[in-house]
User: Which sequence fits this backbone?
């Protein structure tokens, strides 16, 4: 983790496009981005030059960008590269929100850098950005128990109870965003991980 944390200036919510995927586990990152937009009373618009749905708002006179890539998950890196190049946003100022098989439902973790852990969205972002050095909000969806069942599992809707728990942890995560925007990223991690 960098000694002086970079303030987050870009939030990326990962998912698959289209109504058929909107409520599936793999779209947990997109749910987070939608919640951030809702809390700031802004709407997404399609922005072809970023291959994304895009919104922004001001935090203490600093513009915070939010995207949900309109590509499928395994091409997420295209959108992240396009917008980060356009606005000159360094990887250390990017927060990628994504579903996480290795965390139980109800557990959400902030992390800086690391590998992709088999997540195709992260894999493509790392490939396009040529770095692992960005922040991740890992939203726990639990593991189906066997690797052969992963693909079907992430593309299914969670149970009503699981969706409620995931929604609650997304709300908790939004509560630490102010610290991330201020560059107090370790403080954000402490608060989020203590709450959970």
Assistant:
């Amino acid at each position: 983790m960098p000694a002086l944390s970079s303030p987050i200036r870009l939030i990326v919510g990962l998912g698959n496009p289209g109504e058929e995927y909107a409520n599936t586990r793999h779209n947990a990152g997109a749910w987070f981005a939608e919640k951030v937009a809702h809390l700031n009373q802004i709407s997404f618009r399609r922005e072809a030059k970023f291959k994304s749905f895009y919104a922004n708002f001001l935090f203490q006179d600093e513009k915070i960008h939010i995207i949900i890539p309109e590509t499928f998950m395994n091409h997420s890196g295209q959108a992240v590269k396009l917008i980060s190049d356009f606005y000159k946003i360094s990887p250390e100022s990017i927060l990628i929100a994504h579903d996480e098989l290795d965390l139980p439902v109800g557990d959400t973790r902030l992390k800086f850098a690391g590998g992709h852990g088999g997540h195709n969205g992260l894999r493509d972002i790392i490939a396009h950005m040529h770095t692992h050095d960005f922040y991740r909000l890992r939203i726990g969806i639990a593991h189906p128990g066997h690797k052969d069942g992963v693909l079907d599992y992430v593309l299914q809707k969670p149970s009503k109870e699981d969706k409620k728990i995931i929604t609650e942890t997304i709300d908790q995560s939004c509560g630490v965003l102010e610290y991330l925007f201020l560059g107090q990223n370790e403080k954000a991690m402490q608060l989020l991980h203590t709450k959970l």
Notes: The longest helix spans residues 160-174. The CA atoms of residues 47 and 53 lie 6 Å apart. The radius of gyration is 15 Å. The mean pLDDT is 94.
